[in-house]
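# step 3/5: fold
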Amino acid sequence: MRLWTNRSLSRIGLLAVSVIAIVSLLQVTRAEESGYVAVAPAVCDAAPPTPVVEKNVVRQNPTTGMTPDEITEYHNQARQDFAMRYREWLAGFAQSGVDVRCLEPSESMADYRGPAHGDLASALTAADVVVLGTVESLRYEEFRTLAKLRIDVLLKGDGYRGATLEFWTPGGPFPRQDYGYASAFLAYHPPVPPLLPGDRALLLLEYEPQTDGLWVQPYSGEYLLSSGRVMAIEASDFGRSLNGLSEKALLDLVRSQLKR
């Protein structure tokens, strides 16, 4: 399913987290040396999984009777246990043949970083790389997705000249614990919607020292091109004014702003 539309992304976030499909019919090409998974055209199975957890059962609070220090230790250990299981689950997901495009999107509750730029000029100034390209493949880490982009036009960032570059976005495939980790949804952040294999977009990327990598500028960093026309993030204060521009018009506008 498409995650980018001309509708407000907030409507996507309000979708109920419904039972989703897990697909096993598509072919997967794996680049072993890089860990990337490149997916074929999506083939999604509509058969729902079966819950393994009773939803309406009232369970005792496991921290009842604990001291504050014991409660803190309990929650720290629970987070560590989940992180370990999540890493194992992600490794299995990457090799399972599941197409991320078949997953139901669900807005992440996590905080995101980065200011919202008030206009295109300030967004371009803040960006370390401005590039037009097509997403070739994805790989997954804890709570983020790394994408390999085929570079078509590099507008800013001479240090990144080459055939491809890698960038990351927050969110990604996430297991449904109440389905025994047997199914998943696609966690996403409205300021930085996920880009999927085959998506063509103009991206404003910023260097992130903590990860030593490029990530998409929130609100103002993604301009999807569908049938040669711009589909901007509606959460952006100025992005909506770019909707419907042709690819050439967008490139001309960006080039003119960068020359100032």
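# step 4/5: annotate
The two ends are 39 Å apart (CA to CA).
# step 5/5: archive (pending)
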